[in-house]
Design goal:
About 2% of the residues have low confidence. Helix 13 crosses helix 15, helix 17 packs across helix 18 and helix 18 packs across helix 19. The chain has 19 helices and 16 strands. The chain is flat. The relative contact order is 0.07. The strands form five sheets. It has a five-stranded parallel sheet with strand order 2-1-3-6-7, sandwiched between helices. It has three domains: 128 residues, Rossmann fold (3-Layer(aba) Sandwich), CATH 3.40.50.2300; 172 residues, 3-Layer(aba) Sandwich (Rossmann fold), CATH 3.40.50; 129 residues, Helicase, Ruva Protein, domain 3 (Orthogonal Bundle). Strand 6, helix 4 and strand 7 form a beta-alpha-beta unit.
Amino acid sequence: MKRKTIHLVDDESIIHDIFRRIFQEPEYELRISENKSQAKTNHDEDVDVVIMDQMIPGSSGLEIFKELKTNDPQIKVIFLTAFGTIEAAIEAIQQGALDYLQKPFNNIELKHKVDRVIKEKKLKRENTQLKKTIGDRFSFSNIIGRSPLLKKILGIVESVADANSTVLITGESGTGKELIAKAIHSNSNRRNMPFSPFNSSNIPANLFESLLFGYKKGAYTGAVSDKKGIFEEADGGTIFFDEIANLTTETQSKILRVIQEKEIQPLGGNVIKKVDVRILAATNIELLSKVKSGEFREDLYYRLNIINIHLPPLRERKEDIPLLAETFLKRFAKENNKSIKDMNAKFLRHLMDYNWPGNIRELQNTMLRAVLLANGNTLTPEALTPEVISNKNQRQEPGGFNEKVDAFKRQLIIETMEKNNWVQKKTAEDLGLKPSTLYELIKRLRINK
C-alpha cells in the first residue's frame, strides 16, 4: 500500500515533534524542511500535501509556495498561521492554497484536513486514470483493422461524433456495432456523461417501458417506490439501443416522442420530465423490411436513420484478420499466463480461408480456444476447430483490387518461403526480389512462420 506523503515546512522543533506523533509510519511518510532551500530539495510530485508555516526564516511561506507551484502545478498546500497573520493566509488561498489552520491548532482537526486532502487527490487521480482507460479502450486507434472499408467507417464516426443526431448502426451479429457506438460516444462532447446500452433481445417486452422511462410508487403491483428509468439516468449522455427491431410498437411510439419532444413521463406519473439524451441504435436485420410489414414504425425508422453506419462482415475485409488475430492472441495469452508469441503460416492461412459467419466475435472465440489448447509457443492448426479447418478450399478474398493483390502476394510468399525452409535470402532470389523488398513485404503483410 502506498504511503501518504506529507511535507512539513516549518522551523519550529516543537511542531516537528507534534507532526511526528500524528503522522507515523508506516501509514505516512513525513518530510520536514526548515527553510526555502530544504523545501525545494524535499518536494517532488510524490508529495500528497504540504503543510506550510506562514513565517519562514529568510523567506515567507507564500514565497516558497509560489516557487514550489512553478515546478508542481498540482501542489496541495495547507497554511499554518499565527494570530495576526490571517490576512496573509487568505492571500495564499487566493493564490491557490487549499486551506489554513491557526496556531495553536487542534491535532484532530489537522489530521482530518490532511486525510481529506489526500483522499480527494487520490479520487481525482483515479478518476483521471479511469477516463483515460475508457478513452483508450474506445478511441478510434483501438478499433482494430486497417482495411479501406474500416477506415471509411471510422471517417464517418469521426464526422458524426460531436453531432447530436441519431445514428443507426447496421451489420451482421458479431461485427462490432456496440464498439462503434461506444467510440461515437467516447469521442463526442458527451464523453463525460453516461453511456447506457439497452438490449431489447435480452429483456421481456413487458419490462421495456418501466426500465426506459421509470415509474412512480404504486404504478403497478410491486412498484413499492419511485424509480428512475434509463432515459433519466442517462440525461446528458447517450443511450444505445441494441437490436432495436425487437421493441414493441407502443415503446417505439414513446421513443419517437423522446426524440421529437425531448421529454418522458414515468409510468404512473403525471409530470413530464425534460431529458437531453442522444440515441444510437443498432440492428442485424433489414429494418426497412420490418417497416414494410408494419412491425416497425416508419416515422421512427426515418428519425433513427439520419446517419447510417453499415459494418461489413469479416469475410468482406479479410485483410484485417491477421491484425485482429494477433491482437486477440496477445490479449488471451496474457490473460491466461501463456507464453505464446505467434501463429505459424498454416494456422493463419486457415483463418484467412474461413468465411467467419459469426464475424469478429467468432474469430475472438476461436483465438481464445486456440490459446487455451496450445502447448508450445506458436499456434498451429491443431488448435483450430474442424469447422475452420474444413473451409480450406472455400476462400473468398476481399472484393477490392488492392486487397486481392495483397492476398495473392501473401500466398505466393508463404508458399515460396515454405519451399525454402523459411530462408529469406533464397526466397527473395526465387521471387526475383531484393532481400530488403521481401523483408518489407513480409512485415507489411504480417507473414509469420
